[in-house]
């Protein structure tokens, strides 16, 4: 197991970063790590000489304050998992450093971010793109790793990096699922056993050959509040709530 170095100060991390030789990989997260994150961390540590994890629950991407308050915090377990996966350094930035400008400056995308989750979560992707760009500028990694469970987010980040000539290659990793097919998510921790079992229907319906409207109706009939089920290009996207917990998924079609 690695001896992980933990940095609460961005400035201290940047000084440390200047001494790192070889390729650097980076996995930005909000913590509450699970097996899906572990697959990203292992891929990162396998493909790079030095691997960095960040844990920061980013308030600017939460349009629902209750959702932010309830986001699980499991730092000790996260640190243990990171060490087991070969991570060398963990960055734990503070709001006062990350948003010294009090979020006066933000990054917005004017097309793809306005549909799907963007249509139901105002300002969400502004917060996501802003924090990711800040973190990429701090860590200056050769590669950064994101799961494809949130495929909309993955594509927005990938395109942002291209648009702003950021020297970091964005790597997408396939969604890791429970045995039931449910996409692994930190939000799953908030579900009861019964809801977890029912949540597996999302993936089952999503990959059926029925139309997006059929999938939406079946989810509603099974007690879900559905934000959307939409087919865009060669991918079907879904966002649905159960027990007040919002779950997203997507499959190639």
Can you describe this structure?
The strands form two sheets. The chain has a six-stranded parallel β-sheet with strand order 1-4-3-2-5-6, with helices on both faces. The protein has a three-stranded antiparallel β-sheet with strand order 7-8-9, with helices on one face. Helix 7 packs across helix 8 and helix 9 packs antiparallel against helix 10. The mean pLDDT is 96. By secondary structure, it is α/β, with parallel strands linked by helices.
Low-confidence stretches: none
Provide mean pLDDT, rounded. 96
Rg over C-alpha atoms, rounded to the nearest angstrom:
18 Å
Reported for the largest beta sheet, the result is:
6 strands, parallel
Q: How many individual β-strands?
A: 9
**Which range does the strand content fall in?**
15-25%
Largest beta sheet: what is the strand line-up?
Answer: 1-4-3-2-5-6
Secondary-structure element pattern, one letter each: EHEHEHHEHHHEHEHHEEE
Helix count? 10
Helix residue percentage: 25-40%
* Outline: globular
The first-to-last residue Cα distance is 40 Å
**Structure class:** alpha/beta
What is the topological layout?
Elements: E1 5-7, H1 10-17, E2 24-29, H2 35-47, E3 50-55, H3 65-70, H4 75-84, E4 89-91, H5 95-98, H6 117-120, H7 124-139, E5 143-147, H8 151-163, E6 169-173, H9 193-206, H10 212-221, E7 225-232, E8 235-242, E9 245-252
């Amino acid at each position: 197991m690695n001896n992980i170095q933990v940095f609460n100060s961005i400035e201290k991390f940047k000084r440390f970063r200047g001494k790192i030789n070889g390729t650097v990989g980076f996995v930005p997260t909000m913590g509450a790590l699970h097996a899906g994150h572990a697959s990203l961390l292992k891929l990162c540590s396998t493909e790079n000489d030095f691997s960095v994890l960040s844990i920061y629950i980013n308030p600017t991407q939460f349009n629902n304050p209750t959702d932010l308050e309830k986001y699980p915090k499991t730092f000790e377990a996260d640190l243990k998992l990171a060490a087991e996966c070969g991570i060398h350094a963990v960055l734990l930035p503070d709001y006062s450093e990350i948003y010294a400008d009090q979020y006066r400056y933000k990054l917005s995308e004017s097309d793809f971010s306005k549909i799907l989750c963007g249509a139901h979560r105002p300002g969400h992707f502004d917060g996501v793109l802003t924090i990711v760009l800040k973190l990429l500028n701090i860590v200056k990694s050769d590669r950064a790793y994101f799961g494809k469970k949130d495929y909309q987010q993955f594509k927005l980040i990938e395109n942002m990096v291209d648009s702003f000539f950021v020297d970091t290659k964005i790597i997408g990793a396939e969604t890791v699922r429970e045995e039931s097919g449910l996409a692994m998510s930190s939000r799953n921790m908030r579900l009861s056993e019964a809801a977890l079992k029912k949540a597996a229907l999302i993936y089952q319906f999503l990959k059926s050959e029925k139309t997006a409207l059929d999938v939406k109706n079946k989810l509603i009939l099974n007690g879900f509040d559905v934000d959307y089920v939409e087919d865009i290009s060669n991918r079907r996207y879904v966002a649905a709530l159960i027990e007040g917990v919002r779950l997203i998924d997507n499959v190639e079609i």
